[in-house]
Amino acid sequence: MNTAIDFKYLDEIGHNHALFEQTVARAQPLFLDGWIATIGLSGKDSGAASICLVEALRRAKAIKDDVGPLHVVTTNTTLENIVLHDYIMSLHNDVVEYGERNNLPIFSHELRPSLAAQPIVEYI
Fold first, then answer.
1. Percentage of the chain with pLDDT > 70?
2. Rg of the chain (C-alpha set)
3. What integer best gives the mean pLDDT of the chain?
4. Which of 22, 100, 111, 119 has its CA 20 to 30 A from that of 14?
5. Is the dihedral of CA 55, 60, 61, 67 positive or negative?
6. Running DSSP on this structure, what letter comes out for residue 4?
7. Which of 10 and 38 is assigned the larger pLDDT?
8. What share of the chain is helix, strand, coil (3-state, %, to 5)?
9. pLDDT tens string 22-70
10. What is the dihedral of CA 20, 21, 24, 28, to 10 degrees?
């Protein structure tokens, strides 16, 4: 769990974010209909979208036990800033831990393409 900042989960605080609720409301039926969701996690936008999917999964699980799973994927090309990559992987750990604490089927994947498939190697 990320202990660098003091945070609270959405269910611990009140909030009034209409777009968040709209996004969760669009994703929740997909889980209830048996869809398997996969989201690429690489930065701010996908981080926000992943929070919406996790909440949609949590709400769907409260209605129907057999929902999910949610797969969170990041590709490690070794070209990105290592600090950013470490932060993204800490988000993976956080979301998996949240899933475990709430009995949610959330899985983390770090893809590592072969060195020969790296863009800089293909260029050379």
1. 81
2. 16
3. 87
4. 100
5. negative
6. S
7. 38
8. 55, 15, 35
9. 999 999 999 999 999 999 999 888 999 999 999 999 999 999 999 989 9
10. 180
Cα–Cα dist 117/15, whole Å: 44
Domain hosting residue 90, numbered range: 15-123
Alpha carbon distances (Å) from 113 to 38, 48, 50, 70, 121? 18, 25, 23, 22, 12
Query: Does any domain span residue 66?
Result: yes
Helices and strands (DSSP H and E) totals, the chain: 4, 3
pLDDT band at 118 (very low <50, low <70, confident <90, very high): low
Place of tokens 């992943």: 50
Q: How many CB atoms lie within 10 A of CB 43?
A: 14
Is residue 3 assigned to a domain? no
**Domain count of the chain?**
1
Domain of 61, CATH number, reads 3.40.50
Q: Report residue 66 as tokens.
A: 């057999």
Q: Whole-angstrom Cα distance, residue 4 to residue 22?
A: 30
